[in-house]
Amino acid sequence: MAYAQINLFATLAGALFAFGVGSLIDRRGSRVVLAVIALLLGLVTIGMSLTAGSLMLVVFVTLTRGPGQTALSIVSLAMIGKGSAAGSRGPWASTRWP
Fold first, then answer.
1. CA atoms of 47 and 18, how far apart (whole Å)
2. How far, in Å, CA of 82 to CA of 88, rounded?
3. Sign (positive or negative) of CA dihedral 75, 81, 84, 85
């Protein structure tokens, strides 16, 4: 199996990690979800360094795509969205540039 095929499968399957991340953020908070996902991604990266076969490579590349590419993107967008609310932008929020 070529790496391009592994990468395609991992990206498509990793998109499934998007389901449920939003509700986790709503229930637990974005900081907690971010910490858990970062820890999970770190463990997956360590596991990927110990990979010996093609099947394990597919599994670990998929797991890096899931938490790393999909879930972290959702958490970062949620944190930016919540942090840029009208009351939390600081004194420069109302400054208009010419």
1. 22
2. 9
3. negative
Q: Which of 9, 2, 1 is nearest to 64 (CA)?
A: 9
Tokens at 38, concatenated = 């970062």
Greatest Cα pair distance, the chain, in angstroms, is: 59
**Are the CB atoms for 84 and 34 separated by under 8 Å?**
no
Structure token pair of residue 71: 């879930």
Question: pLDDT of 1-57, one tens digit each?
Answer: 788 888 888 888 888 888 888 888 889 988 899 999 999 999 999 999 999 888 898
What's the residue count for the chain? 98
pTM here is 0.73
DSSP letter at 58 equals H
Judged on CB neighbours under 10 Å (0-12, 13-18, 19+), 48 is: middle
Helices (H), 50-94: 54-63, 72-83
CA–CA distance, 26 with 16 (Å, rounded to integer): 18
